[in-house]
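[Solved] Which block belongs to which protein?

Original post:
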Amino acid sequence: MRSLAPLTPHFSGLWKTIFFVLFPLTLGACGFHLRGLPEAQFHTLYVDGKMGDVADQELKLEILHQTHITLVKQSDKADVVLTLSPIQNTQQILTLNAEGTVSQYTLYARLSYRASDNLGNELIPPSTLTVTRLYNYNVIQILGKPAEQQLLTHDMQIDLVHQLLHRVLALHPALGTAAH
């Protein structure tokens, strides 16, 4: 009598292969796609102000690689003028342990911005985006905690850039006003 056990891994691998090939195809067929940046309704963007090194670099990379928008060096040549303020990073004590020392902080990153067309018509009024992260603090791990806080701050700044881009790319400015 022959055992079917040696055939099981072969069929298991075959079913996995079929699943991993057919599942993405069925998702694509039903119209599913990963959420990305919206398609911009304008062509040129002028950025006035700096958020900080990490955020400025992320903004430029996202615009250059994820959109069809051209960054221009003069505001009068832009369809949209984005005015940015530096990101404000703060922290607030969230909890204390039994000894009365800090055990958890809430980290905040705030970005103030506004958008207008090149004639000064307001497209987005002065607005603020805020992101938060919880940061567990432990005196025993004193050497690794500053690096962890720096990584969280970096992550928050990138998150702010992505939120900002979603809002800016959803704009529908009146085109044809820019002096091209």
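(Second protein starts here: sequence line, then its structure tokens.)
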Amino acid sequence: MVIRRALDLAKEHGLDLVEVAPTANPPVCRIMDYSKFKYDQEKKERRIKRNQHVMHLKQMRLKPNIGEGDYQIKLRQAINFLKKKDKVKINLFFRGREMMHRDFGAKILARAVADLSEYGQAEKAPAMEGRIMTVLIAPNASQLTGHAEGG
């Protein structure tokens, strides 16, 4: 259709002539209410943005001689963070002579990784950074796609 005729037709109906596919040969135009179209696009973008999740890094502090009850509390917190699709960084702090027994700390971190394996996996093996032994746990892929129960 000739552009002049399309513009007259749009004006006659009180609508706008909007170019939809400028790269097509010939370019494709549509007669529509442009302000309503823009509103619908913005609404769709807001809905998409609302459903997105920004992944945060949550840190937990442990010590090599942590008690069983305290360990279970920290474990439950880590599970909640992983369920909310956040990464968890577990820092195990050594003080004074505790540095002589790094194997205790390694066992605690290995146990934590094993206990959290249902909800997330370690991105890399536990590593020493000065007096701190660290492991980073990322949520499982099933949690990220939203197929996990809860939410």
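Accepted answer:
You had them paired correctly. Confirming on the second one: The longest strand covers residues 132-139.
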